[in-house]
Each structure stands twice: as structure tokens, then as C-alpha cells.
Fold this sequence. Notes:
By secondary structure, the protein is mainly alpha-helical. It folds into two domains: 12-221, Growth Hormone, Chain: A (Up-down Bundle); 222-447, Growth Hormone, Chain: A. It is built from 18 helices and two strands. Helix 9 (153-179) packs across helix 15 (333-369), helix 13 (274-302) packs parallel to helix 15 and helix 14 (304-318) runs antiparallel to helix 15. The longest helix is centred in the C-terminal third of the chain and has 37 residues, at 333-369.
Amino acid sequence: MNQTEEIQRNRTTTLRKLNFSLPRLPSAIVLGIEGFVLFALYYLGYGVPSILVGFAQSMGFLSIAAGQFLLGWISDAKYTKWGRRKPWVIIFSPLLGISFIFLMLPGLVLPDLSNKTLLFYWLLIWDIVFRFSYSLTTVYQAWMAEQFPVQERPAVSQMQNTMNYIGNAIMLIFGLLIFTPAFTVISSYIPSSVLYPILIFGIFVIIIYILIVFTMPTEPNFKMDSSIFKNLITIVKNKNYMSIVLMQGIASFAWSIITTVMLTFIESVLGLSGLSYYIVAVCLVIGFIITLYVWRKNIQRMGKKRALLLLFLFAIILLPTSLIGLIPIATNIIFGIIFILIIAASLAGWSLFPYIYYADLAEDDEKRTGELKAGIYTGFPSILLNIFQAFGPLIIGAILMLPDITVGTLTYSFGLVLWGPICSLILIATYFYTKRYVTLDFEWEAK
Length: 447
């Protein structure tokens, strides 16, 4: 019996899928809070110079790029009595929770919050530790290829993304309503409304990851004869895999612009605030969850590549609705809801695919080589993708430097109107590249 035949993936229960997906909830909360409030927390709340805050965060991006690749790589190479994935989850989940707490609450340890140099080094060290520890999600995600058969992966991915957006909803509510207003006092004392949720979120992420170590089965010990360097050479020579990584990198320009600017657009261009703002935020979460189901059904009905191309066309056609900011009557909640539902459907579709096709690519390689390298297949793209994603905010910064325009009673940068067509142009290039060079559906899936 060859190695490919030894790796059996039996159908699983809904409870197993839900259990596997649950860690995405606390992961989304802690990473969302870190990404949403960290710059403002240290710049506005603690008075650290913006250039230092930006430098520290850029080092965090580099650490996650290295960590996601490294941990995926190492977890493939070594099998223990706990399997390949569980040891790294056990090691890094406590570091993730602890670094999150220290990063958000330096006042728990530092005696003098007026020392900006000390705060900078605190931010630098703990953001690097936090981002590197977050790389355990690559090890966890690589598990999908070993735990679930190909037919179940769209359903698992949908559950994971549902957890992601529940987590993001919690993050937004906490960040907007509780954490941000506390910036005015947080350098003097830590309000209990901030202290206890941060402690709970940090402990929660540790508990959930440790929980799946004991509730998910250990993957079988399939032998990997080739060295770790040969595995890397193998995936780099996989033209389809590298084409998909490049496709995801190009598209990430557009998606990072969208996620960075969408709430600013709603508030500044559509003029929504207060209750209207929160109604639109709720529509974002609900729309995302509903359209996750729709895109999953499209994948099952027409295949991954056709569904992805349809997603690109949907976004290409509808993202230029940002031009509605040139019309004075756009400042109402109806336009806000329509706009946010377009964004929700676009982001839901895109976030569904990577979880699926990286697991499929690892299994396709397994069919040809007899070895399953799920960790390195999941982790390698982080290097290129984090570089691409780092440029997203630079693009936003550049276009928001365009002159202000006044539409009705509102004044804002002309860039807040142009970002939609810019994203469409990026996705047009991605569409034609994907159509010509990328394979997402394999013959063995039908067997």
C-alpha cells in the first residue's frame, strides 16, 4: 500500500466541523482588536510618535510573514506522539494570549507610561511576539487537509468564516463603543470596562486552542521521506501553486484597500453616525454570514474556479459604487446599507476560498508525490502576501492625499471616492490572470 492510500479521510460530523472552526472566533477578536486600535492606542492614547508606532507595526508584519512560513514548514517535518500540529498549538497559544494582554495593557507592568521610549520598545517587542505567535493559525489551518475530505472543506470554511465575522462583530462593538473612548484616560489608569474584556479575550484564545488539542483526533503518521528543503523546492516548482499565490497577492491589494477604507467611507462620505452607523455595521455582519452560504453553494454547484471568477466580476462591477460620493443625495442610510451589502458579499466570497484551495493543493501534491505537506503549503504564501498587504495602507495613504472636495454639506478627500474604481482595475487584472493561469478544480475531486 502506498502512502497516498494510507491517508484516509472519512466523512465527519457537523459537531467535528464546528469544533474545528471554533478557534477562528477568539483569533478574529484578538487580531481584529490589534489591527483596529493598536496604532491609535499608542499614538493617541499613550502619545508615542507615529513614526515609531508605524515602525513597530511593520516589524510585526515581517514577524508574521516569517512565522507563518516557519511554523508551517517545521510542523510538516516532525511527527510526535501528539502528531505534527498539536505541539505547536500548545506552545504558541499561551504566548498569543499573554502577548495580546501585555500589548493592549502596558500599564499592567510598566510603572511610567510617560516614558515614550520605553513604551515604543514595549510595543515593538510584544507586537513581534503577538504576530509571530499568531502564526500558530497556519499550523491549525494546515490541519484541514488532514482532518476533512475535499467535499467537506467548503462547509468547514463557511463555519470558520462565520466564526471570523462573529469575532469581528465583537471586536467592532468593543473597539468602537468601549476601547476608543477610553483613550483619553488610559495613560492614567485602566478602566475596568477595558481591563476585564481584554483579560477575557486573551484567556479565551488560549482556552479554545488548547481545547481542540484534546478534542480533535491526532492525524496519522504518514512518512515523509524528502527533506524539508526538498519540500520547499517541490512547492516552488509547482507552477499552479505559485500562480495561485501570485493571484492571491495581486487581489490582496484590492481587498486590503476595501477593509481599510470602508468604515471611513461610510462615516465621511455617506455621513452616517450614531444609530445609522451601527445599523450599517450590523448589516455588514449579517450580510457577510448570509453571502458566505450563497458563495459556498456556488462553489459546490459550478466549481471553485468559475465561482471565484464570478466573485471577481461581481466586485469589478459593483465596487465603483464608491463614486456615489459625488452625489449629494448619497448621504442617507439606504445608500449605506446597499453599499455595505456589496462589500459584505465581496469580502465573504473572497475569504471563503483560501481555506479551501490551499488544502486542495496540498492534497493534489500528495496524490502525485505520496507526501502530504499541508503545513508548508499553507504557510509559504504568508511571505509574499504580507508584503503585498503591507502596501495596501500605502496606497490608501497616497490616494487620501488628493485634494478635498465638498459634496453637499460634507468635505472629504477625493480619494475616498476613487478607491472603488481603483479596486475594480486591480481585480480586472486578477480576473484575466486567474482565468488563464490558475487551476482550482482537480479530476480526483470527483472520485
